Predict the structure of Oxidoreductase.
Amino acid sequence: AVPSTERKVVLITGASSGIGEATARHLAAAGHHVVLGARRTGRLASIVEELSAAGHSAEHTDLDVTDPGSVHAFVGGALRRHGRVDVLVNNAGVMPLSPLAALRVDEWNQMIDVNLRGVLHGIAAVLPSMRDRGSGHIVAVASTAAHRVDPTAAVYCATKYAVRALAEGLRQESTDVRVTVVSPGFTRSELMDRGGDAEVQQAARAVAERIAIPASAVAEAIGYAVAQPAGVDVNEIVVRPTVQG
Ligand code: NDP
């Protein structure tokens, strides 16, 4: 574990399952203080209880990243309690897959609201205090879908390409706040269990069951970027199953 002088206050969105949960566990075990946010607070409470019982430092807050007020409260509460936010991991995301012609407009908007607007809300909430302190680290979980478009994933890919563009813009404008994009390939999580065209989701689930890497592999990539000294900014990591085409 890191010495207490290097302990960071790390906020993680979408920490109730999958990659966010794994990241919270990984960074807490590394000695950082983690603040878990998501809507399923029962899940968050039991993860925090488990981490605390293991002697780690963790807390949780109810969070809906589509609501700017909720994101500001998530960050504002951490700033009040700890005086700073060192790292924000913008991880919350949804992936209801379907062909465009199915016109599942509500799900398109949900992906834009969670995957893109949610990241913007996170940036807006942490950037002022990070700028004031002259340090900080904003991590976004994008996807291999931010590098390549596939059928049934056009809107999802559009949101993830946008997140990469946003992170690159933020990096260019920033000389003190670090910016990292971690882009996973197929990863074991609950991402494919919610929404989308039933047949398409089932096919994606079948691939994931066959080839997905554990969420801890992505958490370790995030942990690597977080562990670098302040002057070293790891801008992008792609981590996917070896067999993924
Ligand atoms: P999960 O479904 O397991 O986790 C998604 C998390 O996002 C949950 O904690 C969920 O919590 C949270 N979330 C969803 N909507 C909201 C919201 N409105 N406000 C706050 N939190 C929300 O999937 P993953 O762990 O796989 O997903 C994490 C990230 O990884 C996503 O951005 C996803 O796009 C990305 N990714 C995943 C890949 C994979 O193969 N699994 C591959 C590439 C990228 P709750 O419902 O409790 O709010």
In short: The beta strands are 9-13, 33-38, 57-62, 87-90, 136-141, 177-184, 236-239.
